[in-house]
Every structure is written in C-alpha cells, then in structure tokens.
What we know:
The complex is a heterodimer of chains A (343) and B (404).
Chain A: H1 8-39, E1 54-59, E2 68-73, E3 82-87, E4 90-94, E5 97-103, E6 111-116, E7 122-127, E8 131-137, E9 143-150, E10 161-168, E11 175-176, E12 181-184, E13 187-189, E14 195-201, E15 207-214, E16 217-224, E17 229-235, E18 238-242, E19 248-254, E20 262-268, E21 274-276, E22 288-291, E23 294-300, E24 309-315, E25 322-325, E26 328-334
Parallel strand pairs in A: 12-17
Antiparallel strand pairs in A: 1-2, 1-26, 2-3, 4-5, 5-6, 6-7, 8-9, 9-10, 10-11, 12-13, 14-15, 15-16, 16-17, 18-19, 19-20, 20-21, 22-23, 23-24, 24-25
Chain B: H1 16-46, H2 51-79, H3 82-99, H4 106-134, H5 140-168, H6 173-194, H7 208-214, H8 218-231, H9 237-246, H10 255-280, H11 282-302, H12 305-323, H13 326-331, H14 340-368, H15 371-395
Helix pairs in contact in B: 1-3, 1-4, 1-5, 1-6, 2-3, 2-4, 2-14, 3-4, 3-6, 4-14, 5-10, 8-14, 8-15, 10-11, 10-12, 11-12, 11-15, 14-15
Protein name (chain A): TolB
Transmembrane segments (chain A): 15-36
Keywords (chain A): Membrane, Transmembrane, Transmembrane helix
Amino acid sequence: MTQPAPRGRDRRDRIVTVVAVLVALVAVGYVTLSVLRTGATGAEGDVELPEGRQLVFRSLRPSPTFGHLAVLPADDLRRERVVLPTRCERTAASPAGGLCLRQTRDPLQPFAATLLDERLRPSGEAPVNGIPSRARVSEDGRYYATTTFVTGHSYLSDGFSTETVIGRVGGDPVGDVERFTFLLNGRPNENVDRNVWGVTFVPGGERFFATVATQDRRYLVEGDIGRRTLTALRENAECPSLSPDGGHLVYKKRTGLNTDVWRFHVLDLATGAETPLAETRSVDDQAAWLDDGHVMYAVPKGGAGGRAADVWVVPLGAGAPRLLVQDADSPTVRSPAPGGASR
Amino acid sequence: MYVSVRDIPRGAPVPRVVVVLGLVSLVTDISSEMVTAILPLFATLALGLTPLAYGMLDGLYQGATVLVRLLGGFFADRLRRPKLVAGAGYALGAAAKLMLLPVAGAGALSAAVAVDRAGKGLRTAPRDLLIATAAPRDRLGRSFGVHRALDATGALLGPVVAFGLLALAPGDFDMVFVVSFCAAVLGVLLFLQRVPERTPVPDRPVSPRDVVALLRIGGFLRLLCACAVLSAATIGDGFLYLVLLNGESVTTRWFPLLFVGTSLVYLALAVPFGRLSDRHGRNRVFTAGYGLLLCAYLTAILVGGFLGAVLCLTFLGAYYAATDGVLPAAATPMLPAELTATGISVVQAAVAGGRALGAVAFGAVWTVTEGAAAVWIFAAALTAALLTAVPMITRARDPRTESR
C-alpha cells in the first residue's frame, strides 16, 4: 500500500482472518448437518402397506423423512402414516403402481421419474425434463403422465413453457403431448405457442383430459393416445381430474382478471352443468378425488422454508372444506385389487 | 503494488487492487449466482409459484436496478467514498441471503430479491470507479478485463456449487442459502480488509447539476447515445437460447450448458479483448463487440445443428468480453475525475435500460411471428444500430479515449 501500515493493522488483520475462518466453518458445519439429516431415511426394506383403499401422498412432516412417499388407509385417516423410503417432489398412484417425480444427483438431469410397482417400490426409471409440476398414472397402470416447467437456467426467466409427456409402462413412450394434433372448433390449430399440462386418464382406454393453452386462452381438451389428437371441449379450465365413476371433472377455473386466481369448479359430463366448489381460496393444484363425492387438494401453509402444505377436502354438494391430512401434498387414492398384489 | 505507472513494461500485471476487487467479485458472484440458479427451483417447487409469476418478479427488479445503479454512482462521487458505497452494496447482498431463510411466499421472496438487486446496483459503479482509479490510463481496458474475467468465473462457479450442494442434500434450499450467505460475508471481509479507501480530495461537493453537465462532454454523449441504440437492439441471452432450442440445435437437457459455454468464452476473452482495446481504441472494440453479437444472431438462424450452437455461443461470449469491461474503460478517460462513478453508472444504465427494452420488444415480436423471423428483424435492427453508432463514436477520434 502507499501509506505506511499503522501498528493496529496486524491486529485487525488477525481478527478479520479469525472471523473469516469462523464463517467458513459455519458453512461447512451447516452442509455436513444437512447431508447427515437427508442421509437418514425412514423405513427400510419392505414396508407393510395398510389394507383396503389407500391414500398415497407426500409426507411433509418436519423430519428427516420430509418429502417421502407415505400411505394412510383412506377409511381411517387418523392412523399413523406409513412412510416409505422413496423421496418425491410429486407423486401419483393407481392400483397397479405409481409414479414419483424426484430430484436426482445429476446436475445435467436434475429430475427423473421413478415408476413404482403395486407395493409402491421403485421398479423403473424415466428421464424428465424441467421442474416437476404434475404427475398422474392411469387406473390400469399402463400409462403415466408428467408435466414439468421447462425454465432451463435462471437466466432464462424471459420465457418458460410446460412440457407434458405421456409414457407407456413397458412399451414405446407416447411422447410429448404438445405434438398431438390440436382440434379447436373441429379444425386443426397450428399455433406454435401451444402448451399442454395437467393430464387425467379415463380408466380402461386410451383417452385422457388435459389443458391446452395458446394465445393466452386455456382450453379443457379430450386427448386420444391412439389417434394422437387433442380436442377442445370448453374454455377456461385447467388441470382437470376425472372422478372415479367417470361422471365428473373437477378443474381450476380462472376467476381473476389476467392474474393467477383460480377457483375449483366441477363439470357434470352428462349434463354439461358447471358448479363452483365451496373452496373459495385460490389453490394452484391438480385436484384428486377422495371418492365420487369429495375432492382433495394441497394448500401451501409456509413453514419449513415455504415447503409445508396440508391436504384439504371439499364435498361436491353442500358443506365447507376441511383439513384432511396435515403436512402432506400430492394426494391420490388407490384401491388395490381385493386380496391381490398389495398383500 | 506498482511504483510508477510509466515504468511498467507491456504485459506487466495489473495493479493489485484490481485483482483483489476481482477476487471480491468472484466470491460475491459465487454467492449470488448460487441463489439465482436455484431460485426458480425454490419458487416453483418449494413455494408453489408459477414460473410466470417468478419471471414477472424477476423482470420487475431488472428495471429497478437501473435507478439504484445511478444512485450508487452519484453517491460514490458526492460522498467521495466509493469504498463506503460499494461496501454498503456488498453488505446488502449478504443481508438478502439471510432474508431468504424464513421466506414463505411470493411477498417475502420478492423483498429478498429486491434487497439483493439493490445491493448489486449500488456497488457496481463505485467498484468500477475503484478499478478506474487504480489502473493506469493506458491499461484501463486490460484492468477491467481482469476484473470481469474473475467476476465471470464466480458467476460460472455459483450454479455449479449450488447444484453440487443440492445433490448432496436434495431439497435443502436453506442449506444453499446459508452457504451463499457465508460466501457473501467472506466477500465483504475481503473487500473491507484489502481494498483501500480513496483519500478524499477536499473539493466542492458534486451536485445533480454537474451530472447534467456530463452530457455536454461531446465524446461522452456520443458514447452514451451509441450504447442506448446498440443495446436496444439486443435480444437477451434467454431468448437467443430459446431460438437455438426451437431450431433444434440443442435439446432442453443441454440448456444449462449454453450459459456455461457463453461464460467460458467470456472469461477467456475478457483480458485479451481488454488489451486489444487499450491498443486499438476502446470505442472500436466496443462497437466491434456488437458486430460479434450480430454474428451470434446470424449463426443462430443460418447455421443449424451442434455447430450452429457452438458458433453462436462463441460469438455471444466474445460479445460480452468486448463490451462489458471495455465500456467503463472507454468512458473513464472522457470523464472529469470527480464524476467518474456517475459517468460510468450513466453509460451502464443506458445499456441496462436498452437491453430491458430490447428484451420486451423481442418478446412482443416473438409472440406474433415465428422464431427465425423475429431474429431476422432484430438482426436488421442491430445492423441499423451499428450503422448509426459506428460513425458516431469511432470516426471522430477523441484523443482522451485513445492511449496512443
């Protein structure tokens, strides 16, 4: 330096060095703690799943098993949840198996889909592009669908899009649903800004419902895997979910002006009548059916670094929404074949 | 530290303060880029925001930083304490990382991002003033180049560190925020300890009227206008990467690597281009940088496949190397010493404002036309901007901007 070093300088140097070392130690210590915490998994090996209808979800209890797959008997939700070793960001289950979208340790492929067998154990892997948003599996377990946000790197916040892929278990993948022919008013629509999200499968066939967005409008569409088509049914309906009896669709309907404010509505597929549900909060989730008369969804509640949520349920008819499962999200119900594979 | 400016032979190292400032930027950029890299993940996965909402939040503050940048420059000059103002900026950046820990919603997240951006805006101009003061006049381009190369290295390492930590403990965003905070504190300590404050020269304080007087400096005004015109014709890296994606030159899987490629070229060329600018004229290298950007546009649409992507990223990285550090180096010699930080912040604000405008305009064009057509339109706009800017700043040689 140009000026002569004052005497107190050495002392100050030493103090700053000590502080710097302490700060570095804090960082190292915190990382070590965090790694040890996540390293500890819950149940190991084979886990006894509850009998009968099961509610499968992601457990968000503040514990080392935060984010792990968990199961409760759908008819007795006060029982203690069974926590599985698999960690997911989104999950969905059917009698034949399930799907878990999870974070990987590969920075180039940060997310992957793990297929689950009928006892919800990992049985296969499929790559996934982007940040997981929705997951669904078909009733017979033949198909699964993933919706992700393809934001790429943070420098790309200028543009984002969703990617929705349908996979066939043990067969050729069906691929990116965006490439299906989109029929709007009976005519193929060629808009390039098309985005597809929120698939729900129709049991026993190759049909599904989903959302298609183009030119700032969002359509409820009926998809056909065999014919590779998406047919627009009505406007302003996102993330549909088909009831177990196939009679109703529940979806998010935009009620705010140009903002992300939604309200769940139910469509009677036979009559075409649309009814708002009693839940008045704006919830950004693909709802799922607890049974033919009740719809459930996750409501974020902050805490745990903003990652905590509860699952709520609302009846189709009269009745207020109520808390169904605390510290949980991504709920789906499955009914394993009686006396069958889940045993 | 150097003894005499005159005695330094060609190829001699830059002043130590410049290297220290570069290291401070390196550490600080690791800290802030680790957060920036995982913030979309945190916002969508943990907070449940839609990427659109996050994108809007991000865009909102790009505009706000322009104003803070100008304030940072002005106060550094007015208080004659660039170290104080820059130090406050670094400290704000560290505080923002701490604010992320209890975040539970869009409101708190946007507050933390706002503080972080304010810190970044505040420190940029006073830090560049510290570099400009320390560097010998004939070595300005090179000194800024060294600083920018170190800075870019930090920006490159940040996401690597963040994703590496997330791989160790998937989903533990808090841990990444804590590490980022610690890195930011280390940056602040290094800055406080190793960067000397410029001894204040007793003089009449700078007033806003003096800032207006800057515009009467012909060479500076021409450089400012050229900056605004050129940067308004830029597409924005994000969109350029999307063009490559749409042209099927790359798949989404390789998306993060596009940024890495650009940064590598940038940090490799920052010093050589800085030296080139010292020798052949800083305004020339600066405008040539936009010529390189034009090449990036054209390769993105004309050359397909992997080769197209590589060429495009090389040109894009070279564009950053030829403009980012060269601009303050070009502006400094034209500015009165007591208004250097203000002047640097004004040209940088012009670039930032121009880029924001360009990004919005390109977004609008992009939605009404197909990808390639939108790039053609911007290639034409950039050509027009170059034809306007080149005679403005490279013909009339201002003796003060050239070292020969």
